[in-house]
């Protein structure tokens, strides 16, 4: 995500990070997430013509892809792939269906699914204090916060998510991977304002949320993702970055194929798998797609982030009715869904990061394109009544 601009001339680590097949990034540690029960998505390709109005003009689909540095684009209708394309934009050869795309902060939305399963299973309560599960955070800024506070990024802790400033806590947190201790840094985070009164985009909140989830379930992030991967029928192994202690970058380190990212968005539609197995409570699914506070509604977030989305339960609502939502990661990673139609769009990208104005325009234009693509798959009235009485 884009956050508070800085005048620092130092390049961000996010501007040089490998986003395709990051498991080959020198010096990083990754844990493999196996695909234990693969169930390939059906395909029925057809022409996909769209006009995206934004940035002062209209764009055809190829023009939109170029303007937003698309590396993969996948469109699904009722679980079937109807459009799929790939493009090399970082010098990597052979980008295609088997390429692992770093989701960056899309990883947070996978974490939301894991937390939702823990809540659905009854092992975790949203109003529980964080320190009930992680007493190590007693005396830190997270002392007095609840699971709900970190899930909605309203913890109130003293945090600025500025990856362009190499001295920021956000940069220091990313710098814990691969050779640091990320959870030791979380204990350094200080209080700011009262929980539940202010929204600030905060990867530390995600890392704390994962720590809580781990304690509640007894499963580390990679193992819980592997359980999800099996139940969703994901077809390719994924990887997740870990620090020297084995703690996952649950706020940004998961890489998967475009088709498997589509499975993550499909689960956000109604909480069930392709074979009808329910993984998430319907109430959880609906809550994740809506903003929890008036100040996190669509158009109410800081304009330095976007005016076209809000923030729900580690997902980004694209309307206030809870119909459309997306996962969103730095430099243009998206997995969007329409909960009424079941349509899904996955778009990975590699736009420049260090110029925050370029980053902001590309993100907003991407949101407009996601809507345009989802609009192509509007169902018949009969289908709406059948699935959403």
TrEMBL record:
<dbReference type="GO" id="GO:0016787">
    <property type="term" value="F:hydrolase activity"/>
</dbReference>
<dbReference type="InterPro" id="IPR001466">
    <property type="entry name" value="Beta-lactam-related"/>
</dbReference>
<feature type="domain" description="Beta-lactamase-related">
    <location>
        <begin position="72"/>
        <end position="361"/>
    </location>
</feature>
<feature type="region of interest" description="Disordered">
    <location>
        <begin position="1"/>
        <end position="20"/>
    </location>
</feature>
<keyword id="KW-0378">Hydrolase</keyword>
<protein>
    <submittedName>
        <fullName>Class A beta-lactamase-related serine hydrolase</fullName>
    </submittedName>
</protein>
<dbReference type="InterPro" id="IPR012338">
    <property type="entry name" value="Beta-lactam/transpept-like"/>
</dbReference>
<dbReference type="Pfam" id="PF00144">
    <property type="entry name" value="Beta-lactamase"/>
</dbReference>
<dbReference type="InterPro" id="IPR050789">
    <property type="entry name" value="Diverse_Enzym_Activities"/>
</dbReference>
<feature type="compositionally biased region" description="Polar residues">
    <location>
        <begin position="1"/>
        <end position="18"/>
    </location>
</feature>
């Amino acid at each position: 995500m884009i956050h508070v601009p800085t005048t620092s001339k130092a390049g961000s680590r996010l501007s040089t990070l490998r986003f395709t097949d990051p498991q080959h990034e020198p010096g990083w540690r990754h844990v493999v997430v196996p695909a234990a029960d693969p169930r390939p998505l059906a395909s029925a390709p057809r022409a996909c013509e769209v006009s995206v109005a934004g940035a002062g003009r209209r764009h055809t689909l190829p023009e939109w892809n170029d303007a937003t540095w698309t590396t993969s684009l996948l469109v699904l209708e009722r679980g079937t792939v109807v459009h799929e394309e790939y493009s090399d934009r970082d010098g990597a050869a052979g980008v295609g269906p088997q390429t692992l795309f770093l989701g960056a902060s899309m990883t947070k939305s996978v974490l939301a699914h894991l937390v939702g399963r823990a809540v659905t299973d009854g092992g975790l309560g949203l109003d529980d204090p964080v320190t009930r599960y992680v007493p190590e955070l007693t005396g830190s800024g997270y002392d007095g916060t609840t699971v709900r506070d970190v899930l909605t990024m309203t913890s109130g802790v003293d945090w600025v998510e500025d990856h362009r400033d190499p001295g920021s806590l956000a940069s220091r947190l990313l710098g814990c991977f691969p050779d640091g201790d990320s959870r030791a840094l979380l204990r350094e985070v200080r209080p700011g304002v009262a929980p539940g009164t202010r929204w600030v985009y905060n990867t530390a909140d995600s890392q704390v949320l994962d720590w809580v989830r781990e304690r509640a379930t007894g499963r580390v992030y990679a193992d819980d993702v592997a359980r999800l991967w099996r139940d969703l029928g994901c077809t390719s192994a994924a990887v997740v970055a870990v620090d020297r202690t084995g703690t996952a970058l649950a706020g940004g380190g998961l890489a998967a194929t475009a088709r498997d990212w589509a499975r993550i968005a499909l689960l956000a539609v109604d909480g069930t798998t392709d074979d009808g197995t329910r993984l998430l409570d319907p109430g959880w699914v609906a809550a994740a797609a809506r903003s929890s506070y008036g100040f996190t509604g669509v158009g109410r977030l800081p304009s330095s982030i976007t005016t076209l989305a809000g923030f729900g339960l580690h997902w980004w609502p694209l309307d206030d009715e809870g119909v459309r939502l997306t996962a969103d990661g730095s430099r243009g990673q998206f997995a969007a869904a329409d909960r009424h139609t079941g349509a899904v769009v996955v778009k990975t990208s590699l736009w420049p990061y260090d110029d925050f104005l370029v980053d902001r325009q590309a993100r907003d234009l991407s949101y407009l394109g996601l809507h345009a693509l989802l609009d192509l798959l509007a169902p018949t009235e009969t289908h709406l009544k059948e699935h959403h009485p």
